[in-house]
Write a structure and sequence with these properties.
Number of strands of chain A: 10
Number of helices of chain B: 11
Low-confidence stretches of chain B: none
Strand content of chain A: 25-35%
Strand order of the largest sheet of chain A: 6-7-8-3-9-10
Strand content of chain B: under 5%
Low-confidence stretches of chain A: none
Helix content of chain A: 25-40%
Order of helices and strands of chain A: EEEHEEHEHHHEHEEE
Structural class of chain A: alpha/beta
Largest sheet of chain A: 6 strands, mixed
Number of domains of chain B: 2
Distance between the termini of chain A: 20 Å
Shape of chain A: globular
Radius of gyration of chain A: 17 Å
Order of helices and strands of chain B: HHHHHHHHHHH
Shape of chain B: flat
Helix content of chain B: over 70%
Oligomer: heterodimer
Largest interface: A-B, 16 and 12 residues
Largest sheet of chain B: none
Distance between the termini of chain B: 41 Å
Chain lengths: ~220, ~325
């Protein structure tokens, strides 16, 4: 369960330019829920994801994940929390363009120091699951947008995180690939993952598998 | 006033230390006064960020201070070439009233900064940092010591008069000198060596039986007796001259810079031994400190013992 308690997040560009990204938010996301965060650019969707992933800290308030106060974690512990709990799918995928598909997907496993056999099994399972096995040795910069996104999903999934966060995941995809992405999200929901998707893509609106749609504007929750 | 490239380097680094430590000091005071682990206020999150910055600054200062201390000694040694009467760093230290105090303060600050680093690395192993107030409180005190050190250093370099004739190490540490140090150094070798090896023996016993506080106290004694015996006895075998009693000359090239190794080993050995009395470590951590301490103290004892033994084997007599 993810709980936001009176969370505010501001970005201080300089003393005259303070951006209020999130303002006094109180919200709870239950385990296994699929949440859609809607809203225009700059409405605070990405900030919410970044706070859940402990990529940033609130300016005030508290973010609690499974009774752990993640907003109070130091950088070291935040990294461990992220490694163990979070799968993050970025809008621009954030892959390492000069590495192969296989090596990109493997990255989250590096600090775990697992046995080579276990890694191989995990890798093959995930690559097959997201239909990217046949491209495993291709350098990712040579892949199409849809394939790169599947690599990004596979990478976010390989640690079997409880929470999957997707930030504008279909912004660079055509309709067909976006629908494919939605299918993958449905599959992940069946595995009882908590999924939070920040998007303003209307393709996601009103879908049956989405439990809640939350609309944001100027850092506040409207609906 | 002397302004050699070495002194200029020390001044520039001191200016940097003063600036950075002032920032860390300001944040440390705020953290010490307002830190509240349970708070989710804007102030608390700001303090958390400031604690990272302050810790980084303090770690940076320590990382530079260790080699800078050796560079300081090297500079003093180098300056002895232009000061009449000085044969090594000892003459330069003795050339002004500030030299000895500065040297003692520098060593003390090194131990305290190293202690801060250990406390910090222990602290960040916990999700809730239990030593945060303690470590930043310590830095508030350390800041003042650092400022005094910087002022003393400037005063010392400014007070050195190259036209005055100073004493060389042979005079400063000779038994005919009236200082307390000379009185201690002129004690019977057998007594001093008996204490030195006796302390090391008890150190070994307390290491084997893991007698934490005794081990720590013995390390304190070990620093003192090691320095005394190094100057009065072991040093004379490094120089192969019974009248040459100096804690600096063996830092020179003529003696293969052995002094740097001896002081480094003594520092690592005794620091690791002392620190276990002040911080609660788990079994695995404390074992690491015990082992490091004993290993480096053992190496120190081994090296200093090597010189008189080899001298005896070569010449059939002691000095």
């Amino acid at each position: 369960m993810i709980t936001f308690k009176n969370v505010t997040k501001t970005y201080e560009i300089n003393t005259n330019n303070i951006i209020q990204a999130v303002e006094n938010i109180d919200i709870t996301f239950k385990e296994g829920e699929v949440i859609l965060l809607k809203g225009a650019s700059g409405s605070g969707k990405s900030s919410i994801l970044s706070l859940i992933a402990a990529l940033s800290k609130p300016t005030s308030g508290e973010v609690i994940v499974d009774s752990k106060k993640i907003s109070k974690l130091s950088d070291n512990f935040a990294s461990i929390y992220r490694r163990d709990n979070i799968g993050f799918i970025f809008q621009k995928y954030n892959l390492i363009p000069t590495l192969s598909v296989k090596d990109n997907i493997l990255l989250p496993l590096v600090p775990l120091n697992l046995k080579a056999d276990d890694v191989e099994i995990k890798l093959n399972t995930v690559m097959q699951k997201f239909s990217i096995f046949h491209k495993k040795d291709i350098i990712v910069k040579n892949l199409s947008g849809g394939e790169q996104q599947r690599v990004a999903i596979a990478r976010s999934y390989i640690n079997e995180p409880k929470i999957i966060l997707a930030d504008e995941p279909t912004a660079n995809l055509d309709k067909k690939l976006s629908e494919k992405f939605i299918e993958i999200m449905k599959e992940l929901k069946e595995m009882n993952k908590t999924i939070i998707i920040a998007t303003h893509d209307p393709l996601f609106f009103g879908l049956e598998f989405i439990d809640r749609e939350i609309e944001m504007s100027d850092g506040k929750i409207i609906v | 006033m002397i302004l050699s490239p070495e002194i200029l380097t020390i001044y520039i680094l001191n200016a940097l230390f003063a600036l950075l430590s002032a920032i860390a000091f300001y944040f440390s005071v705020r953290i010490f006064l307002y830190w509240n682990e349970n708070s989710t206020s804007q102030l608390q999150y700001k303090l958390e960020k400031q604690s990272y910055l302050s810790a980084t600054i303090i770690k940076y200062i320590f990382a530079i201070k260790v080699p800078l201390f050796l560079f300081f000694i090297f500079t003093l040694d180098d300056m002895s070439n232009i000061i009449s009467g000085a044969m090594c760093a000892a003459g330069v230290v003795d050339a002004t009233v500030y030299g000895s105090y500065l040297l003692v303060l520098k060593v003390l600050n090194l131990y305290l900064f190293a202690y801060w680093i250990v406390l910090h690395s222990k602290d960040i192993k916990f999700e809730v940092q239990p030593y945060i107030k303690q470590k930043f409180g310590l830095f508030i005190g350390l800041f003042f010591l650092l400022v005094v050190e910087i002022i003393l250093e400037i005063m010392m370099f400014n007070a050195i008069d190259v036209t005055s004739i100073v004493d060389c190490c042979g005079v400063i540490y000779s038994s005919s000198s009236q200082s307390y140090l000379s009185m201690v150094l002129s004690l019977d070798y057998f007594i001093l060596l008996g204490i030195f090896y006796g302390v090391f023996l008890f150190l070994t016993i307390s290491y084997i039986f893991k007698l934490r506080y005794l081990f720590s106290i013995l390390n304190l004694f070990f620093i003192i007796i090691s320095l005394i015996t190094l100057i009065s006895f072991f040093g004379t075998y490094i120089y192969e001259l019974p009248t040459h009693k100096c804690p600096f000359c063996f830092l020179q090239k003529d003696y293969n810079y052995i002094g740097y190794f001896l002081y480094t080993f003594l520092f690592i050995g005794t620091f690791n031994g002392l620190v276990i009395a002040f911080i609660e470590f788990n079994k695995q951590e404390i074992e690491k400190f015990y082992t490091l301490s004993f290993l480096f103290n053992f190496l120190y004892v081994g090296i200093v013992t090597y010189y008189p033994v080899i001298f005896y084997i070569k010449n059939g007599v002691f000095l």
